[in-house]
């Protein structure tokens, strides 16, 4: 299944691909190459979300999209928390190119305050959390409105996570199968062994 690379200028988003850096829950890079991909259906919905946010003088920032199965295993092995990570044996919408992790950025390039950072594995990250400020709730509602109006489904435990409806109709993809070259050869061998 072909994946679409998400990058400007074709996709006017900001890229902050956390799993290609040490700024993620593991404290170490997961991807050896920073790249962002989605399957074609998800890429089309992302275009709609970009257009909707642009009409409000906002921009989307992408933290993660396609996540090769090798990366899903690396995250699961670090923190096998089913409230926030999909068990790689069952597969994640990310590993199908059918999910994106995003936030909103204003005209000054500042992220809107969502009450927690990306990958905050805490109930404070839940969409329905009432323990954050009204402004933070409004910012989450704005992101939720943009993404759902563009056709995305959401995951209730993570304000940043959006996915296609029925993502399991797409196959799980490894780095090799997707041709994304995001993982190091050692991580590819570790999962295939």
From TrEMBL:
Catalysis performed (reactions): D-alanyl-D-alanine + H2O = 2 D-alanine
Gene Ontology biological process: cell wall organization; proteolysis
Gene Ontology molecular function, alphabetical: D-Ala-D-Ala dipeptidase activity; metallopeptidase activity; zinc ion binding
Cofactor names: Zn(2+)
Enzyme active site: 158
CDD domains cross-referenced by the UniProt entry: D-Ala-D-Ala_dipeptidase_Aad
Keywords: Cell wall biogenesis/degradation, Dipeptidase, Hydrolase, Metal-binding, Metalloprotease, Protease, Zinc
Annotated EC: 3.4.13.22
Site feature: Transition state stabilizer: 67
Similarity section: Belongs to the peptidase M15D family.
Protein name, UniProt field: D-alanyl-D-alanine dipeptidase
Source species: Ferrovibrio terrae
Lineage: Bacteria, Pseudomonadati, Pseudomonadota, Alphaproteobacteria, Rhodospirillales
């Amino acid at each position: 299944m072909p994946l679409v690379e998400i990058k400007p200028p074709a996709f006017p988003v900001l890229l902050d691909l956390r799993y290609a850096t040490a700024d993620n829950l593991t404290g170490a890079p997961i991807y050896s190459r920073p790249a962002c991909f989605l399957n074609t259906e998800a890429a089309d919905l992302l275009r709609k979300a970009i257009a909707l946010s642009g009409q409000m003088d906002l921009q989307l920032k992408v933290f993660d999209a396609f996540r090769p199965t090798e990366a899903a295993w690396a995250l699961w092995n670090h923190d096998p928390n089913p409230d926030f990570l999909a068990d790689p044996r069952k597969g994640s919408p990310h590993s199908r190119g059918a999910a994106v992790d995003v936030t909103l950025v204003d005209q000054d390039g500042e992220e809107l305050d969502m009450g927690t950072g990306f990958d905050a594995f805490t109930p404070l990250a839940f969409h329905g959390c009432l323990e954050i400020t009204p402004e933070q709730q409004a910012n989450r509602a704005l992101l939720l409105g943009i993404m759902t109006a563009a056709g995305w489904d959401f995951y209730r435990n993570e304000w940043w996570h959006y996915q296609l409806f029925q993502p399991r109709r797409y196959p799980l993809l490894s780095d090799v199968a997707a041709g994304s070259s995001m993982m190091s050869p050692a991580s590819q061998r570790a999962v295939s062994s």
